[in-house]
Amino acid sequence: MSDRELERRVRAWYLEDGQPVRAPAALHERVVSIPASAPAPRRPLAGRRGFVLLAAAALLLAGGAVVTGSAILRESPVVPPLPSQAAIVRPEPSGSPLAAPTVRGSAILRNGNLIAFTRPVARVRPECDVDPASCPVVRIFVAGVDGSDAHELFPGGTTDQVVLDWSPDGSTLLYGDGPDQFLVGARGGASQPLDTGCSSATLGTGCQPDSQLAVSLDGAHVVFVRTATEAQDDDGTTIATMDLASGEVALLSSTSAGGGSLPGWSPDGTRIVFSRYGTKDDGGPVPRVTSGEFVVDADGTNLRRLTPPDQDAFWGSWSPDGERIAFLSPGDGQPQGAFGDVYTIRPDGSDLRRLTFDGRATTPTWTPDGRILYVQGSGSDGFLPGFRTLDPATGTGTLLVSADALGIPADELAQVRAALQPVGGEAIVAPPWSPQTAVDVGPAAPTPSPTPVPDLGPGFAWTGAPPATPDGSLGATATRLADGRVLVTELCGTAAALYDPATGTFTPTGSLTVVRATGSATLLRDGRVLFAGGYNCAPAGEDGMWASAELYDPVTGTFSATGAMAVPRESQTATLLADGRVLIAGGITGPGAKTAAAITLASVRLVDTDHPLDVTELYDPAAGTFSRTGSMQVGRSGHAATLLRDGRVLVTGGGGEGTASRTSAELYDPTSGTWHRTGSMGTGRWLHTSSLLPDGQVLITGGRSPKDSVYRSAELYDPDTGTFSPTGSMHDGRQEQSATVLDNGTVLIAGGYWSDGQHWKVLSSAELYDPAARTFTQIGSIGTPRMSHSAVELDDGRILIVGGADIGAAGAKGVGSAVLYTP
Amino acid sequence: VDRSPDLIELADRSPARTRADAGRDAAFVRLADEHLDRAYGLARAILRDPTDAQDATHDAFVQAWRKWETLRDPDRFEAWFDRILVNTCRNRLRSSHRRPTDISAEVALATGDHAAGAEEREVLGAAIASLSADHQVVVALRFYRDLTVADIAARLGIPAGTVNSRLHYAMQRLHDAIGAADPAGNDR
Prior knowledge:
Largest sheet of chain B: none
Shape of chain A: elongated
Largest sheet of chain A: 5 strands, mixed
Structural class of chain A: mainly beta
Shape of chain B: globular
Distance between the termini of chain A: 40 Å
Strand content of chain A: 35-45%
Number of strands of chain B: 0
Number of helices of chain A: 8
Number of helices of chain B: 9
Strand content of chain B: under 5%
Oligomer: heterodimer
Radius of gyration of chain A: 34 Å
């Protein structure tokens, strides 16, 4: 797809139905009433200062008491004066879906006097080169529970922070800063790193820094998330605990299959609740992200899902009395995101209750006095955005402190997480901690059921697999050597290997001098193999195509440079001529900037922007040089080329300018070095196949149409008449399949890619074309779906099918297996 | 929206409205009225969710109202307000990014059968949603609002070079995402 086409589509996407967007009347009403209902505009500085003073005065007037500047890192009274209840607990606005509030005076005492929370601040982080407002940093703030004296815990920092937990006695705050976790006293002092075994200092030892730590109520244990080096999302994480006194670290093995996030203790320390994210491949182009709450015993046994399987759930938190677990769920029809509704459930999975109904809650946690503290986002009628508490029994909600009072813009609330300071509990075992080597405890994670070995059709058999490469793509080219072995090379790498048909195994051989994805590989008469052009798979800005070429010498097993083409290119055809020279035709050239998908899959190569070439060149093995020869009449990429029995070369179809597939065909005459038009195919095709049949005719199969459907049809080219004629249809439409002529004259068509414009799949099916009957017959499966693979005939007539790619929900990946077909 | 008084309001509200206040209010209402459709359209283009877009638009106008004193020239309201609106939308987008990709778009994608056009729209929508908030904003300003790079830079208060690089990488990622989601990848 060209840049212009992409831009056109993006514009069209935004235009939706093409109708001008009108703001709903309700929004109009809300906006025009702002001057009448919102606080008057403030002058930039004076107004702000006035607010602070007046707010303090209001507190004085309302409650007769003022919260002192109690906050972390500052001296504060152990038990501060209570703020005025009237000032901080306000009735719900009328029409609220929740009942009238209950003023719970004791709550403040039992919950301490501080609240720690995170919020984004506009600040330039080191890795961000833009204005502060567009690259905020999430930092920890501390305030009185009435919102007074909100201030940043460590002012001026430029790393993201997270509030982890308070110690049960409220004397210390545990927090994450960048990749690591720390502890700081509620009354100030220096931060101390929390060592649970893995941190940024131990990177490279098999784990990423431990995270999401939570303290047990006895102050003697922590639970956290251990993350393997190669983890992706929750895969590769394990819930782990540490006995802070002994340093024993236990990995709850049962949690490692599927991993976990956001663990928390039951109040008695015997169980752990955690969230688990996963994906569900439901057939859409992108797998759906799912979540659920799980409970596991602290010894790793009894892992079970807590929340219903059909309900997304995260942010689980155990109530102080152990009776219920609160969690957040995206709720009815709401997209899963930061906000949702608060639910509670009993730890045995019974008695599910929903406490909020507007879908604008986030981060529920229990307060020490048994209420649920959560963040209320804006956008819902009836509630002030800010920190609220819920009575879990009645669903009664109470505003604790408004976002405004804390100076948090309502639209930043989704990134806010708050934790009330507890009082009266146990102190946490003071660091430094001495983590021992982690020990697996509990039952092992259930091993995923082994992938069944796919059934193979009659005549197919697995053979040794090529050496593994990072993307499993060894086999991007496969060239049968004179001695019968097959040279295979990597797509986006330089690895190469030799397949020995006698042993059925691959053995590494030398390496390409450079990466030559979608270049060409051609066996020369002298037994060497010419690799020309290709894309270097480098990051954007460093990527490009090669004009250079290199030769593989099977005697020495090495690759070495030879001449260079006049034009850098990839996706060209390379055809060994009768005189031993190699004809390089078409392909694309351009500045590079290929996408990963485009490298793997020919069908997304950007033929229209990458200048399909009409330029053709000849490689002379004797001289080791390329020279220009006549140009094709049109540029072509994704075309097919076949050496005819009379020594001419037939080139068919291919993508030209725009996305149209060409119907035209041309013949190259090596004696004159010129191209001539010959008959046209019945339909435009690219990414099709072209095979010389024993009778001298050429079989064209499948490919992609100008309208991007994938063809089942096939055509025959008759060199004598220079015309194409239909010849049956395959059972499956295919592009980027393989077509290999067998000794018996039939043609093996295997794999490829199919699409009907709405659905698509990579094929594992195979069929045989019978030239006599002019029909295709299905012959079963090649075992795994693959496209853009290689298929070569061995000396004994068997066909080796190797390499290629499959496309799953997560994108394309190389196929690492190989299969043999015996006719 | 919550209209009940809170501490800020108690503290800030002056006892009597003056004629200047009334004039200011009227000017705000006039400009808000004039720019509302356009603002809502942009918010919807960026956020995709109509409810979110309404909230963001409302929040942006509230912020605009509170910052009214910093608007020196009403003729420059559009650019001034766009910056507030875009910032509001961007923060909302960022807030919803608990995971690297926008989950709401994925959910939308997972809701069953689609007509071809709708599916293509959804693939592209998911690809756009997978961009970072900053990149989505730049793409929307460029291709929905049809602003020039210089105008976008002025709206966002960032260098034109940064706009260019964001656009470049955003479009690169759209190529990638569309290619990965639909390897057929071409016009249907």
